[in-house]
Design goal:
The complex is a heterodimer.
Chain A lengths: L16 H26 L14 H8 L7 E5 L3 H7 L3 H9 L22 E5 L5 H14 L6 E6 L6 H12 L4 E7 L2 E2 L2 E2 H4 L5 H7 L4 E5 L3 H19 L2 E6 L17 H8 L3 H11 L5 H23 L21
Parallel strand pairs in A: 1-2, 1-3, 3-4, 4-8, 7-8
Antiparallel strand pairs in A: 5-6
Helix pairs in contact in A: 1-2, 1-3, 1-11, 1-12, 2-3, 2-9, 4-12
Chain B lengths: L11 E3 L2 E5 H15 L3 E5 L15 H5 L4 E3 L4 H13 L3 E6 L2 H4 L3 H8 L2 H4 L9 E6 L14 H5 L5 E3 L4 H13 L4 E6 L6 E5 L11 E4 L4 E5 L4 H13 L4 E5 L2 E3 L3 H11 L2 E8 L4 H13 L8 E5 L8 H7 L3 H11 L3
Parallel strand pairs in B: 3-4, 3-5, 5-6, 6-8, 7-8, 11-12, 11-14, 14-15
Antiparallel strand pairs in B: 1-2, 2-9, 7-13, 10-12
Helix pairs in contact in B: 1-8, 3-5, 9-13, 10-11
Classes of the chains: A alpha/beta, B alpha/beta.
């Protein structure tokens, strides 16, 4: 199958004022959180690698909006936004960025390895494409247990060059497993552009070659992403197998904090900034009279307060005692 | 727990013991697990219609169907990773990898995911997957189907690694491994599949973390595992004829190592020879030697000795293959040398 599932009324996003403001609020929460993370990195509060999602927020927000609580998420090392949108408390995420014991993984994972059992958030996977086989297995478990859930698996365009991408798509379609594959195509695998690394740069065609229904989505348009994810979700939940979304997006900031961005022109970044998903939704809402200054002020003020609170929480957190160094390598007691 | 004798076509019940092969013991263990726990399934290349590369799973597809006896494409990374994911999702997968050399194609999933997710998640998630891997030389399968890389996996915190060397362990280690909440890798030496042994019909769950003294002795400790246990017991017989009483330890678990059993034995015999089908450099034998040196140095009457595989990819011709591997004569010679005989 190479065609997308047709829209039905039930699959479309409900474009109420309330819902649109919610989408905007979610993107702004992630944006402000990560802008603060960059500052905290410069203050050496956050160490290691830090990969921010700034510019790409519409993808995580649009897709995750469509998931249910019992669904599963597998993400990459650029996953702060996915975790926050999925419902991992911002406090716990920020404490994890600090490496504090109050973090969502006790500080053991850090920025690249956010996990949360409560929201079925399975990482935080920093081996490019390494999360795809996990997603296939999580979906297999759902299938074998008779649960009709979706496993949403996020990865970048860099993953497409890995064998695990191809093996996983093949297996998921072969076994008709309920996986929603979301390629966050931001055009660069670290510093290597898609056109310098792929003989076929239309990524959705690769998925189609494995017989997955696949479509290209404007990843800078949160409403378009949500609409596509609802189509995909309806298809998957109907038991017809996996679905593939290629979300075309762009990373405004460096790959990580160590990246001088020698591989791309400033003009290219500026051009993409004109498609900023937050500005875009804001402008549209303003033009249609849906968003007023007072709404935006409230959203921004709430986001700032939430980020401030998360920083205070992380600052007040504790370092795990050294005596616990070798814990959490093996289960300490047998499961029931 | 009772033995599923009905599933072992060549088994014969004799009193309360069963004469069976290592292969049949594994088959019965898998079948029992599938019967006992609906979450258990077997997945791997040619485990279904073909019946398993080493015929371990023959017949299981007919009995349990394609959902639970799952043939996979030749995609080691994807199906091992899917096993890890399914374990995260609440299943109890048994993933079979045809040979340890092929497991290298899944090394990312095993080392970067199975071994780390519990730790990275701060203990929130555990990965109760069992991975069965055939390993070892002796079938003239040359340099891409014969290696012993157990040590690579035993190096990694987060994994448990076991090597059943007897029919009894082949039969009873699997269930203990499946009950373990963390990833367990089971190494099955390819020369053991046809080995016949006696199985107690009322055998129960075994502790997979403990080494076992297979033959008591007072003069020298011979430490072996998996495919080298038989050769080591043969060497002990030869030594006995020469009046040397060798104690033979079967490690059984390669991670964690049962250092207590090793050290207690060596402190008694004051001499140790480690027999390891891995290459000598950076071997498990080197690790055990270091442990003995660190913790039993003052009890030793002779330097610790190692009998390992020669530093060469396993050659195809039989005479070269056999020359590369640890053999009873070399084990006897090493043991005698520790006694100055």
């Amino acid at each position: 199958m190479t065609t997308a599932a047709p829209d039905t009324h039930a699959q479309k996003p409900h474009l109420t004022r309330e819902h649109l403001l919610h989408l905007l609020r979610q993107m702004i929460r992630v944006r402000r959180f990560e802008e603060r993370c960059v500052e905290l990195y410069q203050q050496e509060k956050i160490r290691g690698f830090l990969h921010v999602y700034i510019g790409e927020e519409a993808v995580a927000v649009g897709v995750l909006e469509t998931l249910e609580a019992a669904d599963t998420v597998v993400a990459t090392y650029r996953e702060h936004g996915h975790a926050i949108i999925r419902g991992v408390p911002m406090d716990a995420v920020m404490a994890e960025m600090y490496g504090k014991a109050e973090g969502c993984c006790l500080g053991r994972g850090g920025s690249m390895h956010l996990f949360d059992a409560g929201t079925r958030f399975y990482g935080g996977n920093a081996i490019v494409a390494g999360g795809l086989p996990l997603a296939v297995g999580l979906a297999l478990a759902d299938r074998m247990a008779g649960r009709h859930q979706v496993t949403a698996c996020f990865f970048g365009d860099g993953a497409v060059a890995e064998g695990e991408f191809h093996e996983s798509l093949n297996l998921a379609e072969l076994w008709r497993l309920p996986v929603l594959f979301i390629c966050e195509n931001n055009l660069y695998a670290m510093g290597t552009s898609l056109e310098r690394s792929q003989s076929q740069t239309d990524i959705h065609l690769k998925a189609q070659s494995y017989n997955l229904p696949a479509e290209v989505v404007d990843g800078m348009d949160v409403v378009a992403v949500e609409a596509a994810a609802r189509r995909a979700g309806a298809f998957i939940r109907s038991g017809q197998g996996p679905y593939f979304l290629e979300c075309r997006t762009y990373r405004f900031r460096a790959h990580s904090m160590f990246d001088p961005q020698l591989y791309r022109e400033k003009a290219e970044v500026e051009t993409w900034r004109k498609h900023d998903p937050i500005d875009r939704l804001t402008s549209w809402l303003r033009e249609t009279g849906t968003l007023h200054d007072v709404d935006l002020l409230a959203i921004e003020s709430d986001a700032t307060m939430e980020v401030d609170k998360s920083v205070a929480f992380a600052e007040a957190g504790h370092w795990e005692p050294l005596e616990q160094l070798t814990r959490h390598v093996y289960t300490e007691r047998a499961l029931p | 727990m009772t033995v599923q004798t009905a599933a072992a076509p060549k088994s014969g019940v004799v009193g309360n013991v069963v004469q069976t092969t290592y292969r049949e013991a594994l088959h019965d263990a898998i079948r029992e697990a599938l019967l006992k726990d609906q979450r258990v399934f077997l997945m791997g290349e040619d485990v279904g219609r073909y019946g398993g590369c080493y015929a371990v799973s023959r017949g299981l597809l007919d009995e349990f169907g394609p959902d639970r006896i799952r043939d996979t494409p030749l995609s080691e990374s994807a199906f091992v990773g899917a096993g890890i994911g399914a374990a995260l999702g609440g299943m109890r997968p048994i993933v079979e990898i045809m040979t340890v050399n092929f497991s290298l194609l899944a090394l990312d999933q095993i080392v970067n995911n199975a071994a780390t997710i519990r730790h990275m998640s701060g203990g929130q998630f555990n990965v109760p997957v069992v991975i069965r891997i055939a390993s070892g030389a002796g079938r003239q399968l040359a340099a891409q189907h014969s290696h012993s890389l157990e040590n690579w996996y035993a190096h990694v915190p987060g994994l448990k690694v076991v090597a059943p060397a007897t029919v009894e362990d082949a039969r009873y280690m699997l269930w203990t491994a499946l009950e373990d909440p963390d990833p367990v890798i089971i190494f099955e030496h390819v020369m053991l599949y046809n080995v016949t042994g006696i199985l107690s019909a009322d055998g129960g769950p075994v502790d997979i973390g403990k080494a076992v003294i297979r033959r008591p002795g007072r003069d020298v400790t011979l430490i072996a595992y998996g495919g080298t246990l038989g050769k080591t017991l043969d060497a002990a017989e030869t030594l006995e004829a020469d009046g040397i009483a060798a104690e033979v330890i079967d490690l059984r678990s390669l991670r964690p190592l049962d250092t207590g059993t090793i050290l207690r034995s060596v402190s008694r015999t004051r001499r140790a020879v480690i027999v390891d089908e891995g290459w000598r450099t950076g071997s498990l034998a080197a690790e055990i030697s270091a442990i003995i040196m660190e913790d039993a140095f003052w009890d030793l009457d002779a330097p610790v000795s190692r009998v390992c595989t020669a530093e060469v990819p396993i050659p195809y011709p039989r005479h070269l293959e056999q020359a590369a591997l640890p053999q009873p004569a070399a084990i006897v010679a090493a043991a005698r040398a520790t006694l100055g005989r």
